Amino acid sequence: MLQTQKGRLLNDYYIQLYRKERNGVVLQKRGPSCVLSGKNLPKKRMIPKTATMRIARPTDNLPAITKMYMDGLGFTLLGSFEDHAGFDGSILGHEEHPYHLEFTHHKGTTVGQAPTQDNLLVFYIPDTDTWESSCEQMLKAGFNPVVSYNPYWGERGKTFEDVDGYRVVLQNSERLE
Predict the structure, then answer these.
(1) Strand locations in 51-143 (E)
(2) Left (φ > 0), alpha (ψ -120 to 50) or beta: where does 155 sit?
(3) Do residues 6 and 13 touch, judged by C-beta distance below 8 A?
(4) DSSP 3-state of 136
(5) Among the CATH numbers 3.40.640.10, 3.30.40.10, 3.40.190.10, 3.10.180.10, which is that of 48-112?
(6) Tens digit of each residue's pLDDT (9 = 90 or more) over 69-100
(7) What integer best gives the mean pLDDT of the chain?
(8) Is 80 left (phi over 0), alpha (psi -120 to 50) or beta?
């Protein structure tokens, strides 16, 4: 167990950082636990709430995947590019939402299917009527309903798979339960 002088527990990432003296931080052993001393302990900083998150992933089916996500999730095409250093791409999302999806295809390469069944995008939709109509929309867009790899997602949600094998969960609940 590794603790700061104020008693905060540190995870393995910070343990690796503090194994040696760095910027005045010294690791001192005291019995079975360790205590950090020093005045230059790093402060945890979060990215600003105003930041936009973009999730980017490759596809061999750029036109089909673009259409599926636009039709299934109601995204709009925010931007696209062709032959940008050999890459084509689509950027999807909602102009007012702080997240985007980017799908890219590198000409002359094959990326294949999703590496696991647990590569998920999860959307929490608390209103049951909206959730049910969203699930219908996913089916109409060509997403395949599948059994969730993690049974948790099947308790109050439905899982759908795109043509690349990546999955989208529509969860009928509030977020972070």
Answers:
(1) 53-58, 76-84, 87-93, 99-106, 120-124
(2) alpha
(3) no
(4) helix
(5) 3.10.180.10
(6) 999 999 999 999 999 999 999 999 999 999 99
(7) 84
(8) beta
